[in-house]
Amino acid sequence: MRMSKMFGRTLRDAPADAQTPGHQLMLRAGIARPLAAGLYTWLPLGFRVQKKVEQIIREEQDRIGAQEMEMPVLTPAEFWKETGRWDALEPITFRTKDHNGREYMVSYTHEELITHHGREEILSYRQLPVMVYHFQSKGRDEARPRAGLLRVREFVMKDAYSFDIDEAGLTTSYAAQHGAYVRTFQRMGLDAVSVESDTGAMGGDLAHEFQVLTDVGEDTIAVCETCDYKANMEKARRTMPAAAHADAPAATEIATPGVTSIEALETFLTKPASAFLKTLLLRAGGDVVAVVLPGDRAVNDAKLRKLLDVSQIVFAGDADFGRVGGVAGFIGPVGLKVRVIVDTSVERRGYVAGANKKDTHLENVLPGRDFPDTERADVHDVRTGDVCPIDGGTLALKRGVEVGNIFAFSTYYSEKMGATFLAEDGTRKPFVGGSYGIGVGRAVQTIIETSHDEKGIIWPFSVAPYEVHVVGLPMNDETVRSTADALVATLEDKGVEVLFDDRDESAGVKFADADLIGIPYRVTVSRRSLKEKSVELKGRASSEAELVPLDLAADRIHDIVRRAREAAAR
RNA sequence: CGGGGUGUGGCGCAGUUUGGUAGCGCGCUGGGUUCGGGACUCAGAGGUCGAGAGUUCAAGUCUCUCCACCCCGACCA
Predict the structure, then answer these.
(1) Which nucleotides of strand B lie under 7 Å from a protein CB?
(2) Could you tell me the CATH superfamily of domain A252-377?
(3) Fewer CB near the terminus (10 Å): N or C of chain A?
């Protein structure tokens, strides 16, 4: 490819609204361009990267026996109505109608559609197990797209689906996908770690996210500093210190005029936050519940939602306070007429808690004595410094980008959709399934986020848009031009992917663009190098260059490329 | 959805406080000189100042409404 003819240009300055390094470099190098919030066009350079990422995914899916197919983007409402997701997904999906008024959704994902195909194609256990996958655009009307390609409203996802006879089969399929994901991310140069994650409100217990740890990530992950334990915040646990079982004198009222927050109490009573009980009155579905935590702990919304099996939790209103006998600002668990969930980190010792009476708190409140603490649950956030539940090490919180996830949902969809097969014993059984996703565009930008320097992108060889970047200096020198032309032609004949900077630009501009675009190998054909009857060869990631005799150059470069390809395929 | 911010040639920005008819750098076009790390020089092109309404002799600047984009949070198989 000749740069003088390439559609798409590099930018000296990044647009002001690009914030992360990867977002800026992606735009500056001409990988993709924004069309609207959360909608991006791949330019030719970026398109090649996308296709290489897809090819790696494809090879690893094929390796574990998954079969590629393709389902449409536009999906009829009827299938979504079978599982109830037509309504559930309403706020975050794009919808349309055809000229007869029939309703469609721009596919948010494809579980319903593949389950439908599964029930039509698979009649017998003899056809199982089977895995399929496709690369297809997903539409998600995200409330907040962000950071370029990291969170967008339309993106290509590789989604795979497994169908098994039973849970044991699902476990095997799941493990195969987990292995494929490890290889896939490794091959594209992403240091992804698999993290335990929550399965959401639809049952099943097995799910992992593949997270790339980077400060630009929007997810928070608890990571043990000494063992392999990693979990996202919805799932992260900790080992509690041995509970202090201290007795306490009878609870007594203390006056706390106008002191309504834990922070204010800390100052007013000069005690640490852990000396207080935090009581939250919440509305979950149709019910009101109280959650009691130590004053220095935050409630984890997702853990609580899962515990209560609801999709949304909001703070209770004034009427709710009145009904349960609580007073806003001075609420406490003592005497509260409502279901009380006590977090596992609340100890059996004296605390200061709200007295459910204006301007008053209670001292020496003992859980279990002064209020029932029979319903215990882990609903708190872990934090940096907590103790790892596996090896007792120290947990740290890190930021990550979720580049993929795998999810064993079992019979969730097949039961709702009546997707069954005839089992060996002659009975009808629902498929036992899992789904496995990778966001292609997100992976591309995450590679840039984690593989660049101050000058530009450093593409891993396996996903680089081209393998070799040939720079002619200067192009108006007839010898330079003809030599570079011939070298490029020879390399292309050998099947090497070459980006040829044949523009009549200064050396500074060309080298700066080469560093920015980040092709793994740069070959400079110049007046200076030709005096030595050589060309100059330099790796993007290395600082020094070497001279290669002109007559050996094509073979030498071809050889390097061949070896790099072999390494990238492993 | 809540909070905050920004909209001025392709990109980065100044000008808005105090209303007077739009400017700088880069990029772009043409000529000349250069040619190994974002060259120099001469001559050019390019803007309904996000949109609409209003105030005024006069609006990029003041008022109102709307829109778009970005950030933080919430949400997120």
Answers:
(1) 1-2, 5-6, 11-13, 25-27, 34-39, 68-77
(2) YbaK/aminoacyl-tRNA synthetase-associated domain (3.90.960.10)
(3) C
Query: From the first residue on, what is the mean pLDDT of each consecutive set of 10 residues in chain A (570 residues)?
Result: 91 86 93 89 94 96 96 92 87 87 91 94 95 95 87 93 94 95 95 80 72 88 85 80 73 77 75 80 77 83 76 73 74 79 82 79 80 81 83 86 91 92 94 94 94 94 97 91 95 97 92 95 94 95 93 96 93
Distance B75 C1' – A140 CA (angstroms): 12
Q: Does domain A466-568 have CATH number 3.40.50.720?
A: no
Q: Where are the beta strands (DSSP E) in A411-556?
A: 420-422, 428-430, 432-439, 452-453, 456-457, 468-473, 498-501, 521-526, 534-539, 545-549
CA angle A190, A196, A201 (to 5 degrees): 120
Whole-number Å distance between alpha carbons of A91 and A510? 47
CA of A348 to C1' of B48 (A): 72
